[in-house]
Amino acid sequence: MKIRFARPEDAAGIVQVHVDSWKTTYKGIIADAYLDSLSVEQRWTHWEKRLKDPEHGEGVMVAENERGQICGFLDYGVDRETGRVHEAELYAVYLLQSEQRKGIGRKMFQSMLNELKAREYGSLMVWVLEQNPAVHFYKRLGGEEAERKEIRIGEETFTEIALHWRDIARLTI
């Protein structure tokens, strides 16, 4: 398993992981009609732009399997709610279902933390759907609930939870 920074040519692999992961992670949570409507074509432009023209302080990391195929990704940057330079936000982390529970998410998270610390970020937060099993992963890593908000996905309303690590210098994986 290899964790590295994403390159523009990784867009296709990231998009495929993004769509496939949504369809498995949110099965039984988000309406099947919405999940069935997700496509690589819908997400392509976003990821192509994101990788070619990243904002200052942001990064995308990918996990490659032993065949060199992208099987996961992690996207992070400046906290979008506050815009404060030294407060980071984990925007997204997704792994193919076949690669989950192998420690890959933990390795990507550690790689991101190392980068954030090197860039002198002080804190980290992530928004996650309340029903997403990843809530437990983040809480085991010491994430503390800071806030809740309602969001719309398709025709449904969901609760998102903000989990926060106030001092990433003390965060150990």
Commentary on this structure:
It contains five helices and seven strands. Strand 3 (70-78) and strand 4 form a beta hairpin. It has a seven-stranded mixed beta sheet. The two termini are 18 Å apart. Helix content is 32%, strand content 32%. With 173 residues, it is α+β, with helices and mostly antiparallel strands.
Which terms would index this structure?
173 residues, alpha+beta, seven-stranded mixed β-sheet, 5 helices, 32% strand, globular, N-acetyltransferase, GNAT_dom
| Arrangement of strands in the largest sheet | 1-2-3-4-5-7-6
Shape: globular
SS-based class = alpha+beta
What is the overall pLDDT average? 92
| Count of extended strands | 7
* Termini gap: 18 Å
Radius of gyration over all CA atoms, rounded: 16 Å
Largest sheet: 7 strands, mixed
Q: Count the DSSP helices.
A: 5
In the predicted model, the low-confidence regions spanning at least 5 consecutive residues are none
Percent range for helical residues? 25-40%
Question: What fraction of the residues are assigned to beta strands by DSSP?
Answer: 25-35%
What order do the SSEs take from the amino end to the carboxyl end, as H and E? EHHHEEEHEHEE
